[in-house]
């Protein structure tokens, strides 16, 4: 059984789990994620009121330092920046899947944070940040759970990095850490 991590970030790093986490957040509170990357910091407002399970999953993984050291493994200019795969291949996850919390059509915008998936109800740890108009036009098939509210000016720089096969950046774009502030 997955347990709730320490809210102060003191839990040891963990990247494998046997089940989705229990509800570790209070959907009535405000959650802000600071994602330190090798290209700069992104401040992300999370949406526990509209996607409580998805925010809970992201916060729990962040507090277990799951994302620390992972890369953005897929970058498509004008579309998305995708990360959260422990293998760096786009094929990995935390060891479980959980159900969708889908938005209404037309709610994605540049800077939106949503879950990557392999079809309905297959969420795990992979997420994407919408970086361009093609991403904003996606169908509402991905749980929308936050938005970049600080550092948005970095997103055009991040999406413009040179990429190779599989849209993988030639030089790793690293997620150094994700910390959560709760109020």
Record keyword descriptors for this entry.
Cyclophilin; 183 residues; 12% helix; 8-stranded antiparallel β-sheet; 25% strand; 3 helices; globular
Could you characterize what this model shows?
By secondary structure, this protein is α+β, with helices and mostly antiparallel strands. It has one domain (31-182): Cyclophilin (Beta Barrel), CATH 2.40.100.10. 12% of the residues lie in helices and 25% in strands. The chain is built from three helices and eight strands; from the N terminus they run E-E-H-E-E-E-E-H-E-H-E. An eight-stranded antiparallel β-sheet has the order 3-4-6-5-7-2-1-8. The mean pLDDT is 97.
For CATH, the homologous superfamily is named as Cyclophilin-like
Q: Helical region count?
A: 3
Identify the quaternary structure here.
single chain
What best-fitting shape do the alpha-carbon axes yield?
A: globular
**Helix content bin:** 10-25%
At CATH level 2, the architecture is Beta Barrel
Mean pLDDT: 97
Give the strand content: 25-35%
Q: In CATH terms, what is the fold-level topology? A: Cyclophilin
Number of strands: 8
- Give the SSE order as H and E letters: EEHEEEEHEHE
Number of domains: 1
Output the strand order for the largest sheet.
Answer: 3-4-6-5-7-2-1-8
Low-confidence spans: none
Gyration radius from CA atoms, angstroms: 15 Å
Quote the distance from N terminus to C terminus.
27 Å
Structural class: alpha+beta
Largest sheet: 8 strands, antiparallel
What is the CATH top level name? Answer: Mainly Beta
């Amino acid at each position: 059984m997955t347990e709730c991590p320490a809210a102060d970030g003191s839990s040891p790093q963990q990247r494998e789990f046997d089940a989705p986490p229990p509800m570790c957040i209070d959907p009535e509170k405000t959650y802000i994620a600071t994602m330190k990357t090798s290209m700069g910091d992104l401040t992300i407002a999370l949406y526990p009121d509209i996607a409580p399970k998805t925010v809970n999953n992201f916060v729990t993984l962040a507090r277990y330092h799951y994302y620390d050291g992972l890369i953005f493994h897929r970058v498509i200019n004008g579309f998305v920046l995708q990360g959260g795969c422990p293998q760096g291949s786009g094929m990995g996850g935390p060891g479980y899947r959980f159900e969708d919390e889908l938005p209404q059509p037309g709610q994605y915008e540049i800077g939106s944070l949503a879950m990557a998936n392999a079809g309905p109800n297959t969420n795990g740890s992979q997420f994407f940040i919408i970086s361009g108009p093609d991403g904003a036009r996606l169908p509402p098939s991905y749980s929308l759970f936050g938005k970049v509210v600080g550092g948005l000016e970095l997103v055009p720089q991040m999406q413009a990095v040179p990429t190779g096969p599989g849209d993988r950046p030639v030089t790793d774009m690293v997620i150094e850490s994700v910390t959560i502030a709760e109020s």
